[in-house]
Amino acid sequence: MNPVYLDYAATTPVDERVLQAMKPYFCERFGNASSLYSWGREARKAVAEAREKVAALLQASPSEVYFTSGGSESDNWAIKGAAFALRRAGRGKHIITSCVEHHAVLNACRWLEQEGFEVTYLPVDKNGRVLPEQVFDALRDDTVLVSIMTANNEVGTIEPIAEIGRRMQEQQIFFHTDAVQAAGHIPIAVDELHVDALSLSGHKLYGPKGVGALYLRRGSSLDSLVHGGPQEREMRAGTENTAGIVGLGQAAELAKQEMSDEWERLSDLRDMLIAAVRELGDSWINGDEKYRLPGHVSFGLRGISQDTLLIRLDMAGFAVSAGSACSAGALEPSHVLLAMGQTKEQASSAIRVTLGRFTSVEEVQRFIRKLSLLVGAIRGR
Ligand SMILES: *Cc1c(COP(=O)(O)O)cnc(C)c1O
């Protein structure tokens, strides 16, 4: 039996159509986008077209999209770049984020603390939602930046970004959102979310790894992290990763076209899986029932540790994860589940199953059957 990949939140395969779009840019159209002659023009045009496609996915303007090396760089750039630019402008040194952010955000904030910034890490409710009121209450006169993720990678909870953003815009506070798990999967319009900056990553939406983008609202100021040549409108130096950028553009275009059908299909599969987990008994679903990514299921089973179940599922050919890809291998309980108020024991039982474009009904049914057999065997029933 073929192995079944159910870890789309960790990474997605490159869509064949994305690969085809990228291919010419390795050997034939290999030019440097800064060169004057035809090879350069060709690369420049390809980058410009990709920028339009990414902008279209976010309902932004192409001039507000900057290409980066991925989600981690986009997060670091938005947070460090805004923090330094705004402190220099005399606006202050206080940053607000949440306890459930990806480590690309949390560790960028931790580093900024060493640089003299003060960071408030907001708690979440038991479903992993940040309460807008708590963001508003945490605001200080010297708050320069707020960063809250659009959707959580471990539990799939969608955060109230528009509600927070509206207030941040009124108060003119720079608002960043890590939309790496959301972009290409749920509709995103930067004006409706009222964000100043938004991060996304190629490999979470069927594009290649090592390429991402940062949306930055026109008129916002951000210090550069990568200094050098004048690429990306003098904001991010380095010869453009043309093939990767073309891949990201193609992936964004496909995601936009297929999003609503895919949303429906995956939500149905997800709900089927959630129902099956509930049926196992002594189980719980992590994350919000209503505000939840399509295709995202995180659950716990009383008395069964994630290691035990993951190993047995792996042996049976099913690739799922223990919360997040980044903490896999580390024995630390998930910072997200602890922030949601779970005990270490509950958190150490978390299994994340994430479905995507190439997941079939049959695969989900096979997974459900195997899970139920394994859980029965472990519990000795
Ligand atoms: C994967 C992920 C990142 C990091 O993106 P990379 O492209 O892998 O650097 C950041 N934030 C979230 C929410 C993610 O899921």
What does this structure look like?
The chain starts with a strand and ends with a helix. Helix 1 runs antiparallel to helix 9 and helix 2 (about 40-60) runs parallel beside helix 9 (about 240-280). It has 13 helices and 12 strands. Helix content is about 40%, strand content about 15%. The radius of gyration is 21 Å and the shape is globular. Helix 4 (about 105-115) links the parallel strand 3 and strand 4. The model has no long low-confidence stretch (mean pLDDT about 95). It has 2 domains: about 5-10 and about 260-380, Aspartate Aminotransferase, domain 1 (Alpha-Beta Complex), CATH 3.90.1150.10; about 15-255, Aspartate Aminotransferase, domain 2. The strands form 3 sheets. Strands 2-8-7-6-5-3-4 form a 7-stranded mixed beta sheet, with helices on both faces. With about 375 residues, it is an alpha/beta fold. Pyridoxal-5'-phosphate binds near residues 71, 75, 149 and 212. Belongs to the class-V pyridoxal-phosphate-dependent aminotransferase family. NifS/IscS subfamily. InterPro entries: Aminotrans_V_dom, Aminotrans_V_PyrdxlP_BS, Cysteine_dSase, PyrdxlP-dep_Trfase, PyrdxlP-dep_Trfase_major, PyrdxlP-dep_Trfase_small. Keywords: 2Fe-2S, Iron, Iron-sulfur, Metal-binding, Pyridoxal phosphate, Transferase.
